[in-house]
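Annual report, structural modelling task.

Input specification for the magnesium ion complex:
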Amino acid sequence: MSINRYPVESLIPNLAPKSEFGIREQFSFKFSELLVSSYGFDDTITKIIELVCRTFGWEWGAYWAPDHGFSDRLVCRHYWHSFNNDLSTFAIESTRISIPAHQGFVGRIWGNNSSAWIEDMGDDYAFLRRQGAKACGLMCGYALPVSYTAPDGGQNRLGVLEFYSVVKRQQDAQLPTVANAVGVLVALTVRRIEQEEAMRRMAQIDDLTGLVNRAYFRELFDEACRKAADSQSELAVLYIDLDRFKPINDAFGHDAGNVVLREFGARLRRLAGSNVTARLGGDEFCLLVTATVSEQTLRGLAESVLKAAHDPFHFLGIELVVSASVGISRYPTDGLRPEELLRKADEAMYECKRHQRNGFKFHALHMETTGKLAENKLNEPMQFAVLLRQALLKNELFLQYQPIIDLETGNIAAAEALVRWRLPTGEVVMPDRFIPVAEKEGIVNAIDRWVFRRACADLAQIVEAGLPEFRLHVNMAASNFSDTGVCEELMSIAKAFGIAPSQLCLELTERTIMEHEQSTLVTMQALSVAGFNISLDDFGVGYSSMARLSQLPVRSFKIDRSFVNGLPDNQRHASIVKSLLLLAEDLQISAVAEGVESLVQLNWISKTGVRYVQGFYCGHPCEMNRFMSKLHDQAHLTMPCAGIA
Ligand code: C2E
Ligand code: MG
Ligand code: MG
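The model returned the following structure:
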């Protein structure tokens, strides 16, 4: 086998002067740039690994650090690998083992606190992951300790960085010097970030109780609301205020009061499990339930909180007794934003205090008269249409993407863009409610054009992230197809974002074709010739187009979710789905099963040979940033890992 020699400089384009100093300068420059744009330890270390790999031409890079439970064993905390090589076997092997000091290649670097080069990973018995290395074609590489000299002169060891290549390389004479510089830079960065994180943690915690403090609670609440919106799940917040707390402070002093607060905080944390508990200040606490739970469960939880407050506290042999008033509000019923939900839970808590104390109240059940102004306006058709027109101008529409899974690969092959309308109050209106109005008011084409443009912009981002083949499905209302200029317009929008029409799939309902037959067909032909994919949405519900399906330029249809809904028990639905699939096979078009909500349905469908599925079981619609991270995880581009053997 020939041995390629890679002088370090040649791996860095446009590097002048070609000297060791030049490389270090260049690297430090990029390194500083990276530090400015990164946040948090996980993000920074993964970016550092990627930078080193890209700069010096390594295909694999990873950071090993002591496992928290066993400080003498190292685990692979973060890795990055080039997208051009399938290193998944090696990645899996790396995340599954933990390495003691002095064992294997990485253990030796850690134990000796000095760097080393490895020549033949697949055949070197000292290399613990040689099987994975062999399977992935990794050849040789370099590992270095991440350590720095503390002000007292002692060595602080933090972890080990490793870099491997699929190409047989010879150790470059300059590598140790460059690598040592990298090791020190990384060590100082790791230390700085760890200190920052420790300080941040201190700023997030309430000193007295150890619970989350008010400021951090707001951040967590914000994040929880965003997640709930993306996953269409629910949240609940319990606002807790202790009754008769002040008299304890007045009578027995602050130390006694502190005992009550501290002990109540501890009880609250125990009963809250994985939910967030916070002390907002004084004798006010909050419990955030970050999952969809029934009203009965919330009642049970509130009762436990009351008991936790009512069980006596002990101070210098004295029994102290308080109680609590609890107000509960829920996302999305009572509001969509933390401030609104907190205000409503607080109102409910005060209601409770006014009437009985030592009790709880749900906001929704006890404040029926409080305003749902936006809702009321939306109930008036005229107002609704006016607001909808403004929505476009005021940029109140937004998209969510729902994954379409290819069952052959298990990967997200495409996604459907689904439009939503966020009112200034924060309330989100779903398309089933406003698209019919938009159709009646003649503004649906404008909305669909906005959706198409936004989807193209987002698709360009997905392509940029390394998925050149990714497809987006965009819904198109019937009226778009009466307009003969639509084809050119869509082409020019796609072109402006560098998107090929073949990466877009336009979804039309059967109704579209039935209602606007002649002109629709002409437009469909033009779009198909231009390269756009066309899919029939909600297929099966309007059977008249079935016979004509063979004459239409469609590539796929989506089996309506009303049929998938009844699977596998509903015999009628099962046979409709089977006959739709026979039809698809006959016409050689593909079928997508919509509305798959359970594993049982997925199993049934996969046995019928359907290749593509969409539904809550495979993924809820979510906003672009969340969707990108789903794609990112799937591609194993840069994935922090925490696994141990
Ligand atoms: P669709 O095109 O059939 O979109 C699929 C709908 O099914 C989405 O509802 C999606 O959230 C929902 N869905 C997906 N998986 C499941 C599941 O497992 N169970 C259940 N129960 N539902 C599931 P969404 O977002 O409310 O959209 C409703 C309809 O609004 C869409 O139906 C589409 O006809 C229309 N629409 C959405 N976006 C647009 C758009 O940009 N333009 C036009 N003209 N219509 C749109
Ligand atoms: Mg659709
Ligand atoms: Mg559909």
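The mean pLDDT is 84.
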